[in-house]
Every structure is written in C-alpha cells, then in structure tokens.
Write a structure and sequence with these properties.
Shape: globular
Structural class: alpha/beta
Distance between the termini: 73 Å
Oligomer: single chain
Radius of gyration: 33 Å
Largest sheet: 7 strands, parallel
Number of helices: 42
Helix content: 40-55%
Length: 1089
C-alpha cells in the first residue's frame, strides 16, 4: 500500500464516528478540513448540536473552524477542492438532521459548541460559582503581571507581622543575598506559573511532597541504570567495575556513585568519550596499567552503538534521594508560595479581575469533589456524546487531567467518542506549559478509559515538492530517531507532496554571513524581498523571526527601501519615539530625582536643548537635581539666548503638572503637560496613535484601580504594541509562534544564528514529567543560595533536562517556520569561527540545530559581498536634533462668539435606536455601525476575512456588556449584517472606491430653523451622476410579515432626522442632495424624496 493510499485511508477512517481517533496531522496536511468533516458527520448523528463539543487553544483557530462549518452549511464550498463532494454530502445530512429535530442552525449558529479551552473552563467555573470560587461577574485582567507584583509585595510585607512566616521569608531572603527587588520579582514570576506548582503544594503535606519527589528520583535513576545494564555487555561492566574508584555497576540506585565514577573517568568535560587517557583524569591514572585498563573500557563503550549516549545520560542523573537540605528548602518555599498565592486571591477579589490560571483552577475545582468526580463532571461528561480537541500537541498537564475527568465515566461502546488531532512536530509552546509527551502518552495509553485508533496523514497540500523534499531531508537528520516523553523528543515523520513539481528554480536559498551584523542581515532581507517582487512574486511575503527584537532593524531597512510593512504585535509601544518621550516625561513628573528622565525631557523635540546646553545645566555627581538646576539663574545664564527661551517655556509648561501629579489621573496630567510643551505639535502623524494609546492605557489603569505609581509603568508597557499597517500588499513580519497555523507564498527566515535572551533562575525549578502510564514524575529543586556551590546535582539535572527539552522545541520551532512556505523559502543568518577553523553558528540557535545537515550546503559570504544591487541600498539618514522653534507657543483658544438671539437646539437626545428591544440588540447595532465605519476608511474585506473577524466582533460585544450567554448569537447577528451588506449590490455601492468626497461619520454643525444643530452622518459621498448622498445606517431588525409596512414606519420615524442632515449637507457644495436609510440586517434601502 502506497503512502497516498495510507493517507486516503486515514482520512476515511477519521470520519468513523463510532470510535475514538487520535489523528497525527503534519503541516499542510489539511487538518482543519478533516476536523470540519468529522464535526459535520457527528452533527448529522446526534439528537442535539450541543452534544458535540469542539475545543481549540486559540480564538483564531475556533473562529476558523466555525467559519468552515458555517460556510459548508451555507453551501459556500470550493468546488475545486478534492473534498468538495464529501463536504457537500455531509452538510446535506446535517441540514436534514436539523430539519428533522427542529434545530434551525441557520438562525441559531450559537448552538454549535466550538470553544477555546479558556472559554470552556469559564463555562465550567460559572456553573459551580460556590465550589469553584468563581462568580459570573469576574473578568479576565488585561495585565495580570501587575496583580502578581502587587500580591508578591503584599505577601512579603505582611509576612513580616506573622512570626512563622517571617522565619520562612528570612530564609528566602538569605538564599538571595537580601535583594528585595529580586525576591519580589521572582515571587511574582512564580505566581504567574502557579498552575504547575500550586496543586502539588496545596494538595500535599510537606512530607508527602518530599516523598513524591523522592520516589520520582528513585524511579528515574532506576530506569536509567536498568537500561544501562540491559544494553552494555556484562563482561564490559564487570571489567569497568575494577577501575580505580568505580565498584559494582548494578541496576539499582546503590550503584549510582559507581556509575558516576565510570562516567567521569571515561568522558571529557564536553560529554564525549576520551580519545586520550592520562594523569589529568586523576593521580591513579599515572599508573600505565590503569591507563591501559580505562582505554580498553572506552574502546568497549565506543563499540556499543548507544554506549556514549548512555554514559552521558548517566553522568547527568540526579541523586536517587532528595537531600535533607533540599527537602527543608522546598518546605520553606512551599509555605512562602502558598502565602503569596493567598494574597493573590485577595488582590483578585479587590480588583474584580482574575487570570486564566484562576479560571482553569476554578474549572478543575468544579469538576472535583471529595477526591473524585463531582456531579457537574459526571453530568457534563455524559451530556457530551462527542468531544473534539484541536492542536492536542499543545495540551498542558492540567488540561489533560481536565479532559480525563470529563471522560472518566465513559465506557467502551456507549456511543461516546473522543477525537484528538495534532502534530507533535509542531509543539512549540512549552512557555505556556504545553507538554508534547502527553500526545505520545495518549497515542500509546489513551486518556482515562478511552483508547484510540491512531491515524496519520502524510500528504502535504501546501508546499511545492521541492520544499517538501528539503524539509524531509533536513529534519530526518536533525530530529531524534525515537520518541522520548521525558526529554520531550519526537521523531520526524516525512510528508508526501500532493502538488506537482514546478519548473522554476531557487525555491530554497541558504545564506550566511561570516561575522555578520544585524544590518547585514536586514539588507539581505531587503534584497530578497526586492528579488521576489521584481521576479513577479506578487503573493504574500512573510518574514518570520524568533524574537520581536530581531524584527526592528528589518522594519527600518524595509521602510527606508520603500516597502510597506505590516507587523503583528511586533514593535513594542515603548520603542516608538513619541512614546519614549512621553514615558520620560511621566518618569520626570513622578520622580524629581530621576536624572535620566529629566535630561530626556530637556532633549525631547518639545524643548530640544543641545548636548552642550545639557552639560552646562547639570553634570554628573551634581549636588543639585536637574529639576533644581534648571531654575538656578546662574546656570541659565550659561545658555545661549535661544536655549534659555526653550528652557523657560518648558519650566512654565511643567509648573502646573508637577503640582497636579499624584493627585489626578496620571494620563490626564501627562497629556495636558505634553500639549502645553508642544508634544502634540512636534509628534509625527504616524506616531500620534501610539501616543494616544499610551495615554489611554494610563487612564484605563487609573480608572480600574490598577495604577500603583510609576512602578506599574513597566507592566503596563509590556503588553502594548504599536499598531501595524493595513496595506494588503505589505510585507508581513511576525514571530514564528504567531505564524503557526498560517501559510505564505514566500517565507524569509532571518537571524537564525542569533541567540534569544535567557530567563532568570526561578525560585523553584520544577518539572512534571509525563510517564507512559501512571501519574507524572515530579521533580523540584530550590534556587541555589547565594555563595553556595553551583554543582548541585538535582538542580543541575533539572537545568540540563530543561535545556534538553528546550533544544528539542527549537528543532520543532524551525520545522514550523520552514513549513509555512508554499512557493519559496529563504534562510538568512550569521556564523562565526576562529581563524583557520570552519565557520559555524553559535550554539543554542536555530541554525545550530540544523547545522549538522546543512553545513555543506550553506553559502557563507563576507558582509557586503552578497549585495545584488548596492546602489539601491536604503539610505538610513542619521537622526538630527528635531525640535520646535524657540518662539513656539500653545495656540490660544478663540475668543467667545457672542451670538445673541441664536437659539441652540435643546430637543431631547434622539431615543436609542433599539429602545424598543433589549440591550443586546443595541450593542449589535453599535458593533455593526463601528464595522461599517471601518469600511468607509478602507475597502470592505473579503467574505473569508470577514468571517475570520467574528472573534473580534465577539470581543467587542463582550466589552460593551453583552451577557456571556448571548455573545455567540450576537456575534452571529453582526456577521450576518456585514455579510448581507457585502453581498448586497446596494451595500457594495455604498462603499465603492470611485465615489468623490466620500466620508464616514462626518460631523456637521449649522443652523436649522434658527437653531444651532450638530449632526453625525454615517456615510456621505458624490456618485457618478453628481448627486451627493447622505446615508444613515439603521440596524433595526424585523421578524414576521408586513416588512413593507415596517420599513414605511421606520422611514417616517426618521424623516425629521434625515431632513436636518439634508439641509446641512447642502452647505458642502452645489450638488443636489438625496438622503436614504440603509438597513444592514435586512438588506433594505429607503430613499427620501
């Protein structure tokens, strides 16, 4: 049977709804199509659609699945797709079932249970608010890091008043050299990651926790030694036991010291078998007989294929038992962490906001009762006949256990099925607690009572055969040859190209600079983009980076070369120059002693003092603060007249702000100071949005009670990014993680030879290591105390194992990046090497992971030598001192106009359009208006893009206050209105790009019947015939008959409003004016004569 036959069989078997399936679906294999077909097949069989639950891990994935299902049900099927006939047949079966059971899925799409895991957790927690401690009024914090920091600080401060806790906190400070800031930061970091350690700490007595760690250590050591004895020849082990300082090499923990001694004698510091034996190993090897004996043992180990690897793994083994001092330190840390977690609960309660970890814990509590499953768990599990889980390779242990709880009362043949799909080779979310070993465990041992039929797709429909072949050849060499749950290693499984080979060349290029700089790589990216565009490559071009910081030089060079760039959460808001200036101003207002901030304020464009002037005002180790120095007349006289004028203007502008700061909302004070200084006038237009976003975020934090002074600023900025461009033809730049699940015609991977930043050592290292059966192994190691030895074996083992697991994930990250490309793939990197040696990448980088397979095929060049057309290099102009003129002054407000006899309209505000229905309908109308306003500024999106926006519509409705139970239906109504507008000829005409003087949300003020009136017109333009149209959107809905009567009533109801609009619009020009109402939800149009 060929690979193609196996693939077709797997796709067929995946639709067998009477069995549980684990489907392995590599990149480009059409996983979502299979998942959609399975969901349709299940819907055609169940009594109610709610009996089928599909779980994803991202809102984007949930939205895509929902769009696929709804499109199939609506008949929007790509007839050219090879699965079109099957999808159409399945959709017809669902329609028949819906009609038979009265589901009305077309009108009630919210009955489709397609949810993210977070949404599912929230729904579980909300069903048991008392047991789960999660009330329905709780909201998810936008920036939980600030809450973690608050809780850590309060725990440390309040712990001082509790004698027992004070002793534990003193121990913690002692281990960290009494560095308060470091202790607080590390404690806050632990609170963010409490999903892993908190259940162990809360559910175990101190002795039980130590015992579990000890049992895990003994099991890990024992398994390794049993493997050693089973693999290495007995005669070799008997001989090795006679080496100096070794002893019996048995398969039990009592022999561990002997195994360590053998490993130290036979291996170099870099963990390879010694090629030379001499006295540097130890004084006992001065004896030639001992040297000869060890040489023979090394030769024997080299003759065993796995000999070196086994000895290397043995050398890294932890002790077989938990040391007493480590046990005591874990006890102390457990109590401190529990104390901090309780304070976090208090902070959550005060803020009225929680994080996703809290919700997941609440869901877990809702499903558990007295050590077993709760009624809710049993009821939910049995009510769900079928569960589908997408991207299962990204499951965490907590999520795995939740799923196991839901299915624990299922029995074989009872009609329940579990369908899980994923690709272990694309598991790249360890930082979110993803555990790829759980996929391997589920495949081999099932989940709870559920056992799976394992299937695998092999055909790649995305990439050209040349790219598929490149990936197969590369990853077959660098991926491990076997799966290993403990080290999170997964073997590579090849794919078969479904597309036909092309006749073009150069689909894969590999370029490396010898000792290249960031700018060298950025210019190479520009060259590659230019080559693709000049070569007719008009498809999507994506530049994928491992870390956001690597994108900034590339963005600068592409923009300088004239290419439009669209980034996704790429450029931190703090990197925008206008925001940097605002942050410096905020810090200066908050701290008169912040010398750096004050100098930045004086240097910023609103003041623009020269470096010479700054030096004249204040020098290092100056006894005066900068704020004081600028007010000293003698120092002011050191400046030129122009510079003194600038300084005097700044002092006057900041005088009021310094008094107000700390008493009023920081965003308001900062904004008024910024405007008074001239910051808004000297801010580039493309940076104004970023400045407004910072000011808005400050005010929001103040309003929510989350602003704790300048200490909150770093956390506030951490999650804010500058808005990206909207040009559809722009070059897309994003992280590899962000690109997962996407595809592009051309992919460029720069900075492959650059390291990413290392994380700080945590207070407590821990690992939950899944096993093929039974509960996971649990390992914990406290942070090494300041001044203690650094060769702590348990900590070193955990550090090595963590590094090994990260290295395996690096390989998978490279796989994900490489498999995004459809037509061409381009690697760009820098390598280094000592003189006379072959160049090679820095260890721990993405390129280093692939280097064993690529060393011979990478083209290594000197910086500058690869330039295709150097005269076309972008010109990066060195920044000059940009500043306002010294004579600039804030423009005064216009004098008050005396308008005696002018009557201002005092009529009551127009009644809300939806005052006759419930609030949800009003919010639907608001959202539809907002989206149509966006259409007025840019072309309407495609149907596919429109439906992919459903998640954003849902989030907006949630912010407006739509209840959780109504969110899906409301989002469907918004989507239906927008789709109706898009498909309606009249709707498309409203947003046609050829209209003149087109405007959206146009505000007009004027006199109507002697009264001053202000109106806001939804849409206005001049059509081809020269008529100026004034259009008002009405999101009214009508159910039942007599539609024409309803529309006539609406037309009459809004006649006075449209007459005012018409009168004011006549002042815009000589064109005739016509007014109309447009009803997006029902596709109706009414013109006033």
């Amino acid at each position: 049977m060929t690979d193609g036959d196996l693939d077709a069989l797997a796709r067929e078997r995946a639709l067998a709804i009477d069995r549980s399936i684990l489907l392995e679906a590599p990149a480009g294999s059409g996983k979502t199509t299979v998942l959609t077909q399975r969901l349709l097949a299940l819907l055609a069989d169940v009594d109610e659609p709610e009996q089928v639950l599909a779980i994803t891990f991202t809102r984007k994935a949930a939205a895509e699945m929902r769009v696929r299902v709804l499109a199939a049900l609506a008949g929007d099927i790509d007839l050219a797709h090879p699965q079109a006939a099957r999808v159409r047949a399945l959709a017809a079966r669902v329609h028949a079932r819906s009609a038979e059971r009265g589901w009305q899925l077309e009108a009630h799409a919210a009955r489709l249970r397609i949810q993210t895991i977070d949404a599912f957790n929230f729904s579980l927690a909300a069903q048991r608010p008392l047991a789960a401690s999660a009330g329905p009024g709780l909201a998810i914090a936008d920036r939980p890091a600030e809450l973690y920091q608050q809780a850590a600080r309060r725990a440390l401060i309040e712990g001082e008043a509790v004698p027992a806790m004070r002793r534990d906190i003193d121990v913690l400070f002692g281990r960290l050299d009494n560095q308060w800031q470091r202790v607080e930061t590390l404690l806050a970091d632990m609170l963010a990651k409490r999903a892993h350690w908190l259940p162990h700490v809360l559910e175990s007595e101190a002795g039980d926790l130590r015992a579990r760690i000890g049992a895990s250590l003994a099991r890990i050591v024992g398994e390794q030694l049993v493997l050693n004895v089973a693999t290495l020849p007995a005669t070799l082990l008997a001989s090795a036991a006679r080496l100096p300082g070794v002893g019996e090499l048995a398969a039990n923990g009592a022999s561990l010291d002997a195994w360590w001694a053998l490993a130290d004698a036979a291996l170099t510091k870099s963990d390879t078998l010694r090629k030379r034996v001499d006295a540097r190993i130890g004084p006992e090897y001065k004896d030639p007989a001992n040297r000869a004996h060890l040489t023979a043992i090394i030769d024997g180990l080299a003759a065993v294929p796995a000999g070196e690897r086994l000895l290397r793994e043995t050398r890294r083994l932890p002790p077989q038992a938990l040391a007493a001092e480590d046990g005591l330190a874990i006890d102390v840390l457990s109590r401190v962490l529990t104390w901090a977690a309780r304070h976090l609960q208090l902070v959550f309660a005060e803020a009225g906001r929680v994080d996703h970890v809290y919700i997941a814990g609440a869901a877990r509590a809702a499903l558990a009762e007295d050590g077993g499953a709760s009624d809710l768990a049993i009821r939910t599990g049995l009510a769900l006949r079928h569960i589908l889980v997408d991207e299962f390779q990204d499951t965490s242990i907590t999520q795995f256990e939740l799923l196991a709880t839901l299915v624990q009362d299922w029995t074989d043949g009872d009609g329940h099925t579990l369908f899980i799909v994923g690709d272990p080779m694309q598991s790249i979310y360890q930082f979110r607690e993803a555990e790829v070993g759980l996929f391997l465990r589920a495949r081999d041992a099932g989940i709870g009572p559920v056992r799976f039929e394992a299937l695998r797709l092999t055909r790649n429909f995305r990439s050209r055969p040349e790219l598929v072949d490149f990936g197969n050849a590369l990853f077959a060499q660098v991926f491990p040859t076997r799966d290993d749950i403990r080290s999170a290693a997964v073997r590579h499984t090849p794919s078969q190209a479904a597309r036909e080979a092309g006749n073009a060349s150069g689909q894969v290029t590999l370029l490396a600079f010898a000792h290249g700089r960031d700018d060298d790589e950025a210019m190479a990216v520009v060259d590659q983009v230019r080559a693709l565009r000049e070569g007719g490559g008009q498809g999507r071009i994506a530049i994928l980076v491992q870390a956001r910081s690597r994108a900034l030089p590339i963005v600068v060079h592409l923009a300088a070369a004239g290419f439009a760039v669209r980034g996704v959460d790429l450029v931190p808001l703090a990197e925008v120059p206008a925001v940097r200036d605002l942050v410096a101003l905020l810090r200066a207002l908050a701290h008169p002693g912040d010398r750096t901030a004050w100098l930045a304020v004086l240097r910023a464009p609103w003041c623009g003092l020269t470096l010479a002037s700054l030096g004249a005002l204040s020098r290092r180790r100056d006894p005066l603060l900068v704020q004081e120095a600028i007010s000293v007349p003698e120092r002011q006289r050191r400046l030129a007249a122009d510079e003194r004028a600038r300084l005097e203007r700044l002092r006057a502008a900041l005088a009021g702000a310094l008094v107000r700061f700390g008493r009023e909302a920081p965003g308001e004070v900062l904004e008024s100071a910024w405007i008074a200084l001239g910051g808004a006038d000297c801010c580039p237009l493309d940076e104004l949005d970023a400045a407004r976003e910072l000011l808005g975020a400050l005010n929001d934090a103040w309003a929510r009670g989350e602003w704790r002074g300048i200490a909150s600023l770093e956390g506030l900025l951490a999650d804010l990014y500058a808005r990206s461009g909207t040009d559809e033809a722009a070059i897309e730049i994003m992280t590899i993680h962000r690109a997962k699940g996407l595809e592009f015609d051309h992919v460029i991977l720069p900075a492959l030879g650059r390291r990413t930043r290392k994380n700080e050592e945590p207070l407590l290292r821990w690992l939950d290591l899944p096993r093929a059966d039974g509960e996971p192994d649990l390992l914990m190691s406290p942070i090494v105390a300041a001044g203690e030895r650094q060769d702590h074996r348990l900590g070193r083992y955990l550090k090595w194992l963590d590094a090994e697991r990260r290295a395996q994930e690096q390989l998978r990250l490279l796989y994900v990046a490489t498999t995004r490309a459809k037509e061409s793939l381009h690697w760009i990197a820098s390598v280094a090497g000592k003189e006379g040696e072959a160049a090679k990448p820095e260890g721990g980088t993405l390129l280093a992971a692939a280097w064993p397979a690529l060393a011979e095929s990478v083209r290594i060049v000197e910086p500058g030598s690869s330039r295709r057309n150097p005269e076309m290099d972008p010109i990066i102009v060195p920044p000059r001192l940009a500043r306002l003129p010294a004579i600039w002054r804030l423009a005064p407000l216009a004098d008050r106009v005396e308008a005696s006899g002018l009557r201002v309209a005092r009529e009551a505000a127009e009644a809300p359009e939806f005052s006759w229905v419930h609030a949800t309908a009003r919010h639907v109308g608001t959202t539809v208006h907002h989206e149509l306003e966006r259409w007025g500024h840019q072309l309407p999106p495609s149907i596919a893009a429109l439906e992919a926006e459903r998640a954003r519509h849902r989030a907006m409705l949630e912010r407006l206050g739509v209840p959780a139970a109504d969110l899906d239906a409301a989002a469907d109504s918004v989507l239906r209105a927008l789709r109706q507008t898009y498909e309606d000829a009249r709707g498309r005409w409203l947003f046609a790009p050829d209209h003149r003087e087109a405007a959206t949300e146009l505000s007009l003020t004027g006199l109507v019947e002697g009264r001053l009136v202000n109106v806001l017109i939804d849409r206005t333009f001049i059509d081809r015939e020269g008529t100026r149209w004034v259009v008002d959107y009405k999101s009214s809905q009508h159910e039942g008959g007599a539609l024409e009567v309803f529309l006539a009533q609406e037309q009459e109801r809004y006649r006075p409003q449209l007459e005012r609009y018409t009168l004011l619009a006549r002042g815009l020009g000589p064109e005739p004016v016509r007014a109309a109402l447009y009803f997006p939800l029902i596709g109706a149009w009414r013109v006033y004569n």
